[in-house]
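Input:
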Amino acid sequence: MRKILIVGAGHAGLHLAHGLLTHGYDVTVITGQSSMEIRTGKPSISQFTFPTALDYERQHDLDLWSALAPQIREQTVHLYPGQDELMAFTGRTGEGNDYAVSVDRRVKMADWLEYFEDRGGKVVIHGVTVTDLDYFSRMFDLIIVAVGHGELGQLFDYDESRFSGARPRSIAQAHVYDVWPAEGEDENVSWAASAAEAGNIILLPVLSQDGPCHSLVMVDKRGGPMDTWPDRPGPEEQLRRMKDLLRRYAPEYFERTKDAVLIDGRNSTLVEDLTPQVRNPVGVLPSGGRVLGMADVVVTMDPYVGQSWNNSTRCAKAYLEAIIEHGDQPFDEGFLVDTFERFWEFGLYNQQWSEMCSTWWDQGDMSPEMVELLSAATQYREISDRWIRGWDYSPDYGKWLLDPDLATQYVAEVRARHGG
Amino acid sequence: MSFRRRRSNRVRPFTFTGGRTRSRHPLMVQTLVSTSEPGQEPPGTLMPESINIYKLCRETRSLAEVSAELNIPLGVTQVLVSDLAEQDLVYIHPTITGSSPSENQVLERALRGLERLFQ
Amino acid sequence: MVSNDFSSDKRSNRKKMSSKIVIAGGFGAGKTTLVHSVSEIPPVTTEAIMTEASIGHDDNSITPDKTTTTVAMDFGRITIDDELVMYMFGTPGQARFWFMWDDLVRGAVGAVVVVDCRRLADSFDAVDYFETNKRIPYIVALNKFEGQLDYTSDQVREALEVSPEVPIIDFDARSRLSGGEVLKALLRYALEHNRTSEPVA
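Output:
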């Protein structure tokens, strides 16, 4: 059977590794951290698994936590436009009883890695150098590089044709207990805010190693008002500052988190910088060999849109299908390029959506079309539901939200239908 | 507020809930490797590097020694050995890490050994 | 040469196991000298060629030139008895190759940070690595150059921010017996450490 090497035991790489194993491929995962090291290591930015991605995971028996994790059936968006009044709307995560979950990467990746090995996958725990990859290119039919940003990422050149420019982000996150539910609201509703004067905020229920808790995430421009972390404060001081920022820029969030406490002393907070970017998916080795990058190796998105794991699941699915369909033909450069394109049919819309969110307030005010759209979302559940469901499947945004004309037309239709 | 600290909420690792106890020993730079059937010739289907490892490990060696003697990077050596182990062509020896109390006896033996060797 | 009775040979052979001690410290502090003086074989030096692209970066906006660097790492061996072999691995001097350190430290019984008192600051990164990760027990060994030390162990503890429970001893890296004392001290501390610390889940 064809031998495939996956470098990196992240969300995309492990999903693909399991999928390939199911289809009888000889799969080796090489990664720099053991499952124990993942469990006791640093936290990462909280991520959603939306209903369709959950469904893909279930197809490979990879959804091990839905029974334990808070099930997010509704999401609320708050916009703080500065001088004007707060705008807020709530929408359903998916159809019917569908829900999203957010599982701490340390729980999910460690379990997926152990499960992969249990199912007969080969796992090698060792750092990987470019020299190693040159060797591996003779030993394997296909090499997929799936380590997140950093390390081998530099094999892949920037691709400015798919991206309008890097905007450095500063991120702070805390895992906390004792968050108050909003009045009359289920505590499993996830909240996301965007403040004109500052950055973006997410307050979502997550499953951590210590059980269900909340994750509070703040994303701002580097040097922006919510980037108060250059001195890398200790965990308690970080949470204190986060609350202080909420009091100032998002009072509704402060009301809910004012009594929140960190879930443990050591690894419940993170501060990091991140620069969104898109890279060329095909990496060239010194020997001339080719490797295929996947998910956040190629596309690093603004964390505010919470699409990183949605991207990685969709990418894993697209790659799996492409590899299976390709049969015994050689995995040449043409195949690698086409395989990424197959994912990009989805990823493109995510990219546009994330850039839209990153630049919401860059011109000071929102465009009149956007203000009209937002105000319609606060009035009509049909629009707010569609808005929230777009987080599961952003290509739908291409039919309205991402195009001012189509958006205006859609709002007019909804208003007419409701006799407005 | 229902999301509070409760010990019973801790998420148990997969290995404790659904997983098998790992039957194979993990590979590390100090892990000893020996050819399973030293008297047999290596299968002809192996890559040249794997054949060399097969032959070299007729006498037990650590992964680091294999890597150094054959001049193959450590990570690559691990992947090759992992493949050979998968086919039961080599045996991976246990590694004493001292991380579990059950290994204390071996550590004590090591200490006594050092006391004997360096006196 | 090779025994004819492979089956019995195989059974006894399979009882063999190994363990590992990591020898860390600043560049030129005496790591290689220590490995050399206690090892039963001449230390083996392995070189890894790294492209700068292999080096982990927290910030991926940095695009380093894809140049290559050679990282040297050496190891030695002590056969404790018929069934147990102990390896000593010296870490690469350059602290920036952290991910290589992770590979070396994974599964080690413990670590020795060798400190040259004339250049304390050079060992700070190594101490910091073990203090921050807390994965394995470690001790600090002050290498006596010219038979003397410029600082007391209390001064070293304060300067390098070594935790109170971590033993600091002095030794002469060129002496086989003195090096052996360091290894024994580490094993005693590791045993004590295992008894007092909770097992990790």
